[in-house]
UniProtKB/TrEMBL annotation:
This is Aspartokinase. The keyword Nucleotide-binding applies. The keyword Nucleotide-binding applies. It comes from Parasitella parasitica. The lineage of its organism: Eukaryota, Fungi, Fungi incertae sedis, Mucoromycota, Mucoromycotina. Its EC number is 2.7.2.4. GO terms for biological process: 'de novo' L-methionine biosynthetic process; homoserine biosynthetic process; lysine biosynthetic process via diaminopimelate; threonine biosynthetic process. Belongs to the aspartokinase family. It catalyses: L-aspartate + ATP = 4-phospho-L-aspartate + ADP.
Length: 479
């Protein structure tokens, strides 16, 4: 079956580092810990971590490779790479320094090890594969990460894949010497970005992102038993869900693929026969690159709760973002309103603090700050903000976001959302509805977030997707 598929489809594989039983045991997190431990005087922990990573990958290889010759070659290769890692960390220990570029090299070892195993597994299954390490793919000097850089990477990836001929290329998600370092400039989502740029460079028919969930749901199925799998979703909705707590795919990564009009399918490694969720290009102004995955028909759109203009018949999903910090700043009235707001944002910008959600009046501003805000930066910003007025800090909050394209046209949806919270006895700290027309968000205490999530889902999402809520725009679905 596998070889039959490969006779009619050209496949490129891009691998991330291996995950573990918990996030702490994931290879990337272990490598980052090893880098930290290497700089601690007298610590041997980084060597123990390398040993653990080595044993984990050897065990994984032995559990899946059947051909003894392939296994012996793979074991030797894995041991060699892990020995290089150990030597690199020992060198960092001696000079007592790990630069951003050095940290990239350490973290990139995770992708190299996993790709080495995957390439060997394919050979073991009779599929001719080729490991492609992308460390040196960038052969030009770049000073900034702009669209020209990403376009260049896409072209280079297309060239590298072409050099593999009829073999199945297995690409490391880690790629090259990125300006400012890969981790600092792009972050942990670089593997998805690499896959996206490869899809663009190859003008692929479809990009598949394989995760440990069946796709995108109306809510986190681990928290809401009645959550439904969404067969299709627009890029804007997927981006909004990702930003407000659902781990789907990084919006920038998605943007690279969608503007090339390539559909993205989210699939589950533990349920490969499942259909997953398709994030479909919503602008079809030019011919698309292929139609292994055709655009949804009017009937499919209607069945999944969309009008022909891709506005929603009802909300798409609800998500929650935990560990939020809320700042309330009340003006001391020494500033006019526009000066008050300007100084608040200047203080936040100076300390690199990102605001997830905001509500303002002439003399009062409430802001929800991201869960990963640096405490030291926050403390410094608070000193500046207290010069402007009274500042209250509320920790352990959560943002609830109801998402749906052009949702402002749905009559009474905000009322139903907030009524469901009131009936559940949950107080709201902040309310925000963006101009994007795609989400309604509110902030509640984190301890009530789960009940709030379930209450909103029961009221607004436990419905037949094809059933239409009252809409300000007359139905225009005509074929």
């Amino acid at each position: 079956m596998q070889n039959t598929y490969l006779r009619t489809n050209k496949v490129v594989v891009v691998c991330s580092a291996r995950s573990g039983e918990s996030k702490d045991k994931g290879t990337t997190n272990m490598l980052l810990r090893a880098a930290e431990e290497a700089l601690k005087e007298g610590s041997e922990k980084h060597l123990e971590i390398v040993e653990e990573i080595t044993n984990d990958h050897l065990h994984a290889a032995r559990s899946v490779i059947q051909n003894k010759e392939i296994l012996l070659q793979l074991e030797a290769q894995l041991k060699k790479e892990c020995l290089k890692l150990r030597s690199f960390l020992e060198a960092a220990e001696i000079i007592d320094e790990i630069s951003p570029r050095s940290k990239d090299i350490i973290v990139g070892m995770g992708e190299k090890l996993s790709c080495t195993i995957v390439a060997a597994v394919l050979k073991d299954r009779g599929i001719d594969s080729q490991l492609v390490v992308l460390n040196n793919i960038i052969d030009r000097e770049f000073t900034t990460l702009d669209q020209a850089f990403y376009d260049y990477i896409a072209v280079r990836l297309g060239q590298v894949v072409a050099e593999c001929g009829n073999k199945v290329p297995v690409l490391t998600g880690f790629f090259g010497n990125v300006p400012g370092s890969l981790l600092n400039s792009i972050g942990r989502g670089y593997t998805d970005l690499c896959a996206a740029l490869a899809a663009v460079g190859l003008q692929s028919q479809e990009l598949q992102i394989w995760k440990e969930v069946d796709g995108i749901f109306t809510a986190d199925p681990r928290k809401v038993e009645t959550a439904r799998l969404l067969p299709i979703i627009t890029p804007e909705e997927a981006a909004e869900l990702t930003y407000y707590g659902s781990e789907v795919i990084h919006p920038f990564t998605m943007e690279q693929v969608i503007k090339a009009e390539i559909p993205i399918r989210i699939k589950n490694v533990e349920n490969p026969l499942g259909s997953g969720t398709i994030i479909f290009p919503d602008q079809t102004t030019k011919l698309t690159n292929g139609y292994a995955t055709p655009p949804p028909t009017p009937a499919v759109l209607a069945q999944n709760g969309y009008h022909l203009d891709l506005s929603r018949k009802h909300p798409t999903a609800v998500t929650v973002k935990d560990k939020i910090c809320v700042l309330n700043v009340h003006s001391n009235r020494k500033n006019v309103s526009h000066g008050f707001l300007a100084k608040i944002f200047m203080a936040l910008d100076e300390h690199n603090i990102i605001v997830d959600l905001i509500s303002t009046s002439e003399v009062h501003v409430s802001m929800a700050l991201s869960s990963d805000v640096d405490q030291n930066s926050l403390d410094k910003a608070l000193v500046d903000l207290k010069r402007l007025g009274t500042v209250d800090v509320n920790q352990n909050m959560a943002i609830l976001s109801l998402v749906g394209k052009q949702m402002k046209n749905l009559v009474g949806v905000a009322g139903k959302m907030f009524t469901s919270l009131a009936e559940a006895g949950i107080s709201i700290e902040i309310i925000s509805q963006g101009a994007s027309e795609i989400n309604i968000s509110c902030v509640v205490e984190e301890k009530y977030a789960l009940n709030a999530l379930r209450a909103i889902h029961e009221r607004l999402l436990d419905v037949d997707p094809s059933v239409e809520l009252p809409n300000l725009n007359a139905a225009t679905d005509t074929e």
